[in-house]
Task: structure prediction
Amino acid sequence: MSLLDINDCDGDDFHPSSFNIDIVFVHGLREAGLDAWKDVHTGSLWMTSIFPHARHKARTLVYEYDVNRMVTPGGPAATGIYDEAVSLANVLVANRELQNAERRPIIFFCHELGGLIVKRALAFSHSRKHAKLTHIRSIYRSTVAVMFMATPHQGLRKDAIIRWNHDKKRDPSQFELSLLEGSDTIQEVTDHFTPIMKDFQLYNFWEQKKTDFEQTSAYIVERNSAAPSWPDVDQCGINATHSAMVKFSSTKSPGYTLVLGSIEKYIRSAPQTVRIRWEQDSALLNSERAFDIGGLLEASVAGKTLITAAEPDRWKSEPNISTIPNNTSTSENVYYHVGLHSDYFVGRESQAELLLHAFKPTEDTGSEKPKVFVVYGLPGSGKTQFSLRYLEDHQRHYWGVFWIDCSTKETAESGFGRLGQLAGKGNERGAGIAWLAQTYKPWFVVLDNANDPQMTLSEFIPSTGNGNILITTRNPGARLYNTVGYLEFRGLNPEDAITLLLRLAYPDKELQDTKQLYSIGAKSIVSELGYLALAVKHAAFTIRSRMRPLEFYLKSLLTCRTTLLSRPIVESAADANIIATWELPFGEISSHRSTDYRDAVDLIHIFAFLHFATIPCAILSLCSDGIKSSTGLAACPSFLIDPVAKYQVEERILVAARVLYNHSIISIHDVDAGTCNTALLSGKYFTLHPAIHEWARGRLRKCDQLKWLCCTAAILEHAISSNMEPSGRMFRRLLLPHIESCRSLLKSAYPNLPETAEQASQLEKFGLVYSEAGHWETARILQKQVLAYRLRTLKQYHPLTIQAGRNLAHTYWNLFEIEHCLNLLNDIRKSQVIYRPSFFDYFVWPPLKPCYFEYYLTLDDLHKSLWLSGERDLSLTVGLRATNGLKELLGPEDPVTVNAMFNLARTFLHLGRYEESFELLEHVIKVRKRFWGPEHPDTLMARNELGMNLYAQGKDLLKAEQLVHSVLQSRNRILGAEHAYTLWSVNDLSKIWTQLERYDGAIQILEEILPIVARTLGQHHIGMVMTRSNLSRAYIRSGRLEKAKKEIIYIREQVPQNHPDSIYADYGWAYLLFHHDKNPELAVKCCYEALDRGLESLLLRPEHGTIASLTTLLLQIYEFQGHEDANESLRLKFPQLKGSRDPESIDFNLLQPPRSTNPPAAVEQESLPPVNHQPLQEEQPRLNRAPRTW
Result:
């Protein structure tokens, strides 16, 4: 670099002390030295020929730097701007000191890249605050104005770099790529300059004429980059090309008047501006130094060292990696659920020490909140590998180490769900987070690939617990989540990058030998790769495989990178570097014609549309038969079609995967048998780096992307069994992130999804998997789309439409949207009455009573839904019809018949027909045990109902307790402590304990699950209403009436007046009015209002337990008041009260969502008369019962 004094060159007779201002010119990247400013025709410099420098006593300085060194491959790519900025500041300081002109005002006039160098130089000067460096700070203090001539403040466009280098017959260098729009290099310059830009007068100029290239013309720097919308900054265009805008041949040249006028204005204001800045800045520095000295003295007295996340430079000397905290050195690692392992890793020692120090525990670990550290940076910079190596080094110091993929909200929820299962609390996200929050043994969680800026990471950070959380992300905004610090990852240290390349490329040779032989070539390669760990690693594998020897690799890399720049997927230098290192080996793979290499190409096309992690090999082998029968697929791999047997498909897949693995494109791991214990898994799964995953999809043309997306969706569809066997449940859970990835891409590609029958079939399968996993909201969206498509194309009577409707009704049922469920099922039933599968199905009597299998299935669904809605009488009629019909068609032991029998048994139980319910439940349990075992979820459900049957009868409460308690233990172990069915068993057990007068136990288990129910279901969910209803009952029985009152108020607010459970809520309120508030008159009024509403609206039968409880309470109140006449009248109207015990109806606390007071019209009209069935006798629905008034 050099600083040329133009005044000396022209022989001007000026003494150094006579100058009033220094004007410093800094050229751009396209033209160097004085050529950047000379007129192309005359060769004259406008700064001396037409600019009145003598009049203004202006010293003209031209800073020149080595452009060729910067643009040559292997040059100072990562530090080019900073290096030149430091040189400019130091050279300018030295020059001015020699003339004793430290306080002379400065105006910078800079072209293109020169503007970025000046911005960084001013920021560098401003950062020198130490007393020994004040001379460097003098550049910042003395600068008045900066004139930016087509400076790419926001970076250069790709096409400008491509065209310029094409004209020069060369490939773009890493330094030029670092100037792309949105690059980290541009952002770094901006970040450093923004805080001080208000201290200077700035003027942005842009070019208004395009530069001619061989076949086209274009702007080198676009206006939006040359003149950003900065506040209070002058800006104007110059009607000249990029080069000519700084070469003025005369005073009439475009832009000269603007430039001259601005310079003269700055010269006039310079003396006062600089004097004030020197005074104010000196005072500010003196104040800061005094504060720092006081702080250091205070810290010294306290015996502590201050460390802040905002000052990372001060951390590096603090931690000692050999000093392990005492309270973690004895920790025993029980859980290490990471699933990944670090590859060969070098460097980042100082960052590892920093992280260790940040996570150093305090003395009082029991009350701490988790510590959060954020590592952010470029893709491929080694964030994940750094985290893995840290965990492997410090695993022994943590009780539990867990890895959560946070690439999407769904994968994050699934990851914490697996933690919940590990803890035995169920597979809900909140279960895993709650487990960590309540664990005070030291734990460590990595939230990896949390790149989505729309994702709220605080949802996945436990509020308490003795834990450390490390977030890895590309999103700089995620720094906000840190509590103990953050790090930015870019490239490796140059020496570490060279070591990584040579050790991986030549693993059999000594490092010292390879450095002697290849260090020069390796240095150029890692520099062009931006020192990115992932790119260096892939380059090493390519060199090691001898596809590209080291001495030829750089040329191949540059050529490939130039080609890639035209692709939309390449947006930055990091993209170009990383993708080029994959394109080179992938080009070798795609050029081979052997079967295994062709299969490898097809395999990566499929992986591109799945989630990048944990791709089971079984996805591909299971779908083979279904894919062969598929029609309309524009792309389909031959390894799914050609083989005859499933094992042959799997063999070809593993061979193809090995090709990709050998070229370092994917990794292959064994399935963890502890978490994936299912026969459907082959023992292998595949994983791609997220950046490779993006490349694999982005390298395809749009039309090819659609082809392979449709193929991948078909593969997922056929990997899901239509029967949804329980044995495949774990495998289907593994498919969820892949289904989500494929579904989101389908939504983007097809706005009106589904648009074809094939897509409808795929969404139907996806909906079943979401439904099975408990993602009801997502399942409902998909199932509504499928039903709408089939209603539009196939009409309502088609079997596929009916199946789609039943699936949606099932989801409505689980969401407790009972009105929607009943209406939909009734529409399906009406369609099935009119449109029947065969001609012979119409020849039945009576003719409006179909007797075919699908119709009975719909009736059974309707039966279950009517039961949940509180229509127990109508539910019984429909249930008998469905059960009898299925038994005739399939027999009493078919699983479908057994399901219908269970539903009927539950209806009998809630209608008080205990013996019939008991008989059916015994049969159901016997068959389910034989088919599925004693601990299958369906068997457990029947066993739980049998226990509640005994409870309702009041015959054998100890046996009921034994049954329900054993089911609770099994559900706790199999489903998890926070699963909805487990919580249901807790509620049922509380009822039994309350009846056994074990009030403290009942209250304790209900109070323990209250926060779980609130977290997993919500404050207004039916499960919360049921839990608080049972709690109120236990409070009342134990005499804790004040607590019971709070719960009863909540229940009355939540349960609508037209629902049967509102009658129980009114009973509880009347009980409290009499026993707690001592207000018998109001209690009597409440009882009669409840009786009127319950009996007149047909909400409850007269013999129902809650009606009996209300009338019994009335008797107590009348006896207390001495109203014998009213007492006798009440006994006459309810003769069943004589000698009765306090009834324990099973319906006492079963709370369902609100229903309409009128049953579905079509069901009421049909009235469903009985069919011939020996063991079960149907009863007619009691819909026209005369209302009673009181």
